[in-house]
Amino acid sequence: MTIDAPQADALTPAETAFTGKLIEMINHGATGLMLSVGHRTGLFEAMRDGRGMTSEQLAHRAGLNERYVREWLGAMTTAGIVSFDRDARLYTLPEAHRPFLGRGAAKGSMSSMFQFLAVLGGVESRIVECFHKGGGVSYAEFERFHECMAEESEQTVVVALDDAILPLAPGLIARLEAGIAVADIGCGIGKAMNHLAARFPNSHFTGFDLCEETILLAQLDAREQGLENVRFAAVDATGLAGDAQFDLIFTFDAVHDQAEPAAVLAHIRRLLKPGGVYLMQDIDAASDVADNMDNLLAPFTYTISCMHCMTVSLAQGGQGLGAAWGEQLALAMLKGAGFADVTTHRLPHDIQNLYYVCR
């Protein structure tokens, strides 16, 4: 932003602070897009050994165009993500940054989250139209959303299932080893179900998802692994029929963007066998915006809700509950669905979600 001298002199301290905040935000937003590019192109992995490189050396190592790599390094250097030796003209990814950037990052890839900025930006015009006319934007209009969600799920769910998530329900691992019927509603491309099917061959697994494209990918993955105790079906969760079919049901970050979340929870309760367990992962937020002021991810949560979670529900003629439906409303809806015993858990590896164990 350019301010001429008379205008600058007229700014109050509060105005000066606010314009400075806006400048910081536009820089952070731009850096976020470059973090996504670095994640998708493998540049962070190419820098992970900590060796200083010129832009030419990095481009060669990553198999990329040097001119684009040089400009990316300019953004990363001035943003403080990459360090730069002015005399030697070498770029280095600092040791403290390496565990959080790129695929396979040792402490979880935070750079993967920045992919959502471009995904959401791709439907901005459609969202603006919805502000004027109402309605919603369908799943099919989001490019790469399922791909990004699968990568996020790999980090927060799949790698944590064995050691963190399953132990939340005492005795569950022993039951899986003995053999039970398990369902995942909103399974995406089936990473969780296929992982569990491989680990627990005596149990039987079923993944349901609204999108046929993701179901096909889940089935392909299962075939490639030679798994015979898992199946997938493209089904609307509100249309699941039958009673007491499963001993264990999962939903991972799936309930809040359903068209009719209360109906889905009621169906899940009906589908559980006596003594069964429902394990729900969903966004960790409060139901009242006033109680989210100190939530570190609240702006991101409301943004992704407005531009995806809420709008895909409204596109189906649904409730549009939104990602920030919150713990209080979630507990009330679980009680309304017939779950008498609900415990909540926060896991150190997942700063965005809350885990509900329901019986």
UniProtKB/TrEMBL annotation:
Keyword Methyltransferase: yes
CDD domains per UniProt: AdoMet_MTases (cd02440)
Keyword Calcium attributed: no
InterPro entries: Methyltranfer_dom, SAM-binding_MTase, SAM-dependent_MTases_sf, WH-like_DNA-bd_sf, WH_DNA-bd_sf, WHD_Rv2258c
GO term, biological process aspect, one: methylation
Domain Methyltransferase: 177-295
Domain S-adenosylmethionine-dependent methyltransferase Rv2258c-like winged HTH: 30-103
Pfam families, per the entry: Methyltransf_31 (PF13847), WHD_Rv2258c (PF21320)
Signal peptide region: none
Official protein name in the record: 2-polyprenyl-3-methyl-5-hydroxy-6-metoxy-1, 4-benzoquinol methylase
Organism: Sphingobium boeckii
